[in-house]
């Protein structure tokens, strides 16, 4: 019998994308979110959505809407902490070849657009605490004692997913901490002469430091300061606020890095300890009528800018397969079969890149920079695009 009702836990990017795809196919969907107010979903900094994401969103007729709320990226530039250009990728020709852009945008803008599209399918203040499934469906339990019954349950509730925990009967391998922290923020910094539109800057430094930034719009710049544990150990967080620590740490970096940090409010800075789940110790993404998407299934480090993108791809593929066939189990099995190899490669690739950023000593960093100068503009770009565009939606 074709799927008639689905329950999705988590109103993040993957959960909302899945719900939108299922709604468009005529499935009755409810998205249950533990946070009580929609405004609490509209937080976070910015990120990149690459071409593959817009190819996926086109299947939901959302690609143009999403691209309009961001700023198109035409160059991706790699530099050292002394301002030396290591590589520069021309993104615009790839956008024309693929027929889809690469865009930088606020996370909150994407969440708001997906929330609006999902409409009344979203139920706020509903915290999933477990579920039971049988041959005919899944009963979802919530903290207030209520339940819901659906043909399929989608866990889209993040790295520490309640759905995942129940699937694993409370026993699961802990996420793998990557050994560094991303300090993310959006700064009010108008002026094309300070940060030009259209270029994503990716700076690699000594001492286990990196810094990423790009312009989001006429007024705002998104940035990410990535600090290894070795670097973070020296931070005086007792006597100084986050902004002061960041300004001190990156004081001798080339402009406009110090200027971006000086323009940032301390309360805007969000430190996130980066983690993933290694594919070689990951069991199946689901069982029976229950399946995981996004960070609940396969969290990855930020180094390929594909975490949100792979959650979106999950939602598009899963909703399409569930809507196509009469057998829920076959649809869920096909979803993992289609997605697993691609996502595992993304997780591994992102982790390896992050290891380069943890290098600290001057000799090791000089060798890394020489390697990037030699291969990032050619072989690395080709390999990244091969991985990025190798999909079956």
Keywords:
six-stranded mixed β-sheet, 37% helix, 19 strands, FAD/NAD(P)-binding domain, seven-stranded mixed β-sheet, 393 residues
Strand order of the largest sheet: 6-5-14-15-16-13-17
Tell me the total number of β-strands: 19
Number of helices: 12
How would you name the CATH homologous superfamily? FAD/NAD(P)-binding domain
Distance between the termini: 24 Å
Name of the CATH class: Alpha Beta
Unreliably modeled segments: none
Look at the helices and sheets and give the structural class. alpha/beta
Report the β-strand fraction as a percent range: 25-35%
The CATH topology is given as FAD/NAD(P)-binding domain
Radius of gyration: 21 Å
Q: What's the mean pLDDT score?
A: 95
Give the secondary structure arrangement, pairings included.
Blueprint: E1 5-9, H1 13-24, E2 28-33, E3 46-49, H2 51-58, H3 63-68, E4 71-72, E5 75-80, E6 85-90, H4 92-98, E7 103-106, H5 107-118, E8 122-124, E9 128-133, E10 138-142, E11 147-150, E12 152-155, H6 162-167, E13 176-188, E14 199-204, E15 209-215, E16 220-228, H7 229-232, H8 242-249, H9 257-262, E17 270-276, E18 286-287, E19 290-292, H10 307-324, H11 328-357, H12 362-388
Helix pairs in contact: 1-5, 1-10, 2-10, 10-11
What does this molecule look like?
The protein has helices at 13-24, 51-58, 63-68, 92-98, 107-118, 162-167, 229-232, 242-249, 257-262, 307-324, 328-357, 362-388; strands at residues 5-9, 28-33, 46-49, 71-72, 75-80, 85-90, 103-106, 122-124, 128-133, 138-142, 147-150, 152-155, 176-188, 199-204, 209-215, 220-228, 270-276, 286-287, 290-292. The chain has 393 residues and is an alpha/beta fold. It has a single domain (5-174, 276-388), classed as FAD/NAD(P)-binding domain (3-Layer(bba) Sandwich). α1 packs parallel to α5 (107-118), α1 packs parallel to α10 and α10 runs antiparallel to α11. It is globular. The two termini are 24 Å apart.
